[in-house]
Amino acid sequence: MQEGNRYCWNVPRPPGFLNVGLILKNAAISYPEKEIINANTGEVRTYRQVDVRANSVAQGLLARGTPGDFVGVLTRLSLIESLESYFGIVRAGMTSIPLSYRLSPGEVENVLRYANAKALIFDEAFQATVDQIHLDIDKYRIGSGENNYPRYDELCAYPSEEPDVEIRDDTPATLGFTSGTTGVPKSYLRTHYANFLNHICYTISFDMTSHDISLNAVPPLTGLGWDAGIMLAKGTVINIDFDPAATLKAIQDYRPTIMYGVPAMFAFMMAVPDFDRYDLSSLRAVASVGSVLPQPTLEKIWEKITPNVYDHIGLQETGFLAVSKPDMKRKKPTAVGPPTCFHELKIVDEKGAETPRGEVGELIFKYPDGAGEYWRNPQKTADSLRNGWFHSGDLAKIDDDGHLYVVGRVKDMILTGGYNVFAIDVENILMTHPKVADCAVIGLPDDTWGEKVAAVVRLDSGITASEEEFITFCKERMAGYKAPKVIFFDDIPRTPTGKAIKFELVNKYS
Q: Are 497 and 449 in the same domain?
């Protein structure tokens, strides 16, 4: 992030004082006894308690560092400390690095070294990972067991006064790394302005109110943005580390009004053998994130969980772009909705010309709430931002009513025998097969066709099936050239936000 009054892709503006830390502070003033709950352990803290502890975390970090420092965070979503540390770090004028629990120890170390991080806050569940990180930085362990690291509770013992640190719109708040489904992750820096607008977008788009009780199962990288949106609305926050049966029980026990998850989570929940015994009647809606919600999964949610489904799409570095509310989803089940109040969307062809309505092209957009740039990567920034428009790499179309349909990634388009095949079209067909629990469609090199369509399928437990069974199933429902020529039976590696990590599958089966 270069110096100067910039908040988004080099667009100048005078800095204001929009401060993410105010979300928690003002929620604690409005509803001090509202609760934040760890559904895995039953631990409860009030808004007031979390607000006080976040101030102490900020004071503790400032005692060992200075505003502008980078602090890594490796925690599970369920820990209330995940929210405390986020608000504590940004109140200190420092930058949070939310780390995916899927990263190897070497990858975590590389990220921290790349950012010149000064500290790491981590959950005791990841101590084995941290033990292999050989960096001379402060490491604060969340947990009560014996260990060789300073305790996170030591930070919470510092004075609870709000730190005297000036926060401006353009003060960096988070350094993120994209999910990397097509290779090496890219880093992006988001300011207080960008994060605050993104949190507001959650509140508005999902009709959140102070009466909402939210159950969030999405890992911290994305899940904390949802939590902040609920806190802006002054609702109750419940977080859980996803397990299908445990999540169903949490809905029954805590009576949430809305649940946030990725498509695969809802599919796994509905596949629990005794699903019908759980009482899910408290849910006014569920909200899906991370990847396009397959229509078969959507229809099962309508039937088995709730008639009200929110669907949305976006990028980590830019925030989400479009939201389909429950009434819209009923009318246009395959759309991800109109653009949010902050975004302008357009579909262009390979030459950059806008396509007619209904035709597939690349999704580009303008937005105010995203990263300032790809951090330390001016070439990637220049490639992605052209003439004021961000080029997403998503293949999509917009209908006559202005609603967005995502077809797949540009790299998710398979060119076989001169024909274009969109992986998502084949995945949607496969997901209607009663034996398929999960799937991902990829293109593999082929001497005859250039690329051949291949599918990786995960079967429900105890189910058997043949390769030919699925190939025939697809050929009966789509053009022959689109049908998979080969089927592999395997688990689907996914990012914490639910996206299939297809490059791993291509490497494995090429």
A: yes
Q: What is the CATH number of the domain that holds 127?
A: 3.40.50.980
Give the pLDDT of residue 185.
Answer: 55
Predicted TM-score (pTM) above 0.85: no
Where are any strands of DSSP class E within 223-339?
Answer: 236-239, 258-261, 285-288, 309-315, 319-324
Whether residue 400 is found in the same domain as residue 258: yes
Q: How far apart are CA 123 and CA 104, in angstroms?
A: 15
278 and 395 within one domain: yes
Dig out the tokens for 388 from the structure.
């004021």
b/e map 50-69, b = 16+ CB within 10 Å? bbbbbbbbbbbbbeebebeb
Q: Of 287, 334, 21, 19, whose CA–CA distance to 168 is shortest?
A: 19
- Chain centre distance of CA 231: 18
Average pLDDT along the chain: 90
* Confidence check: pLDDT of 350 > 60: yes
- What's the token pair of residue 153? 């509770």
Q: Are 396 and 424 contained in the same domain?
A: no
Q: What is the CA radius of gyration of the chain?
A: 23
> Bridge partners of 406?
396
Same domain for 118 and 255? no
How many CA atoms lie within 13 Å of 186's alpha carbon, on the beta-carbon side?
Answer: 19
Rounded CA separation 11/21 (Å): 24
Same-domain check for residues 502 and 435: yes
State the SS3 of 354-398: ECCCCCCEEEEEECCCCCCCECCCHHHHHHHEECCEEEEEEEEEE
Q: How far apart are CA 380 and CA 391, in angstroms?
A: 11
Decide if pLDDT at 233 tops 80: yes
Residue 30: Cβ within 10 Å count: 12
Residues 344, 285 within the same domain: yes
* Local structure of 414: helix, strand or coil: strand
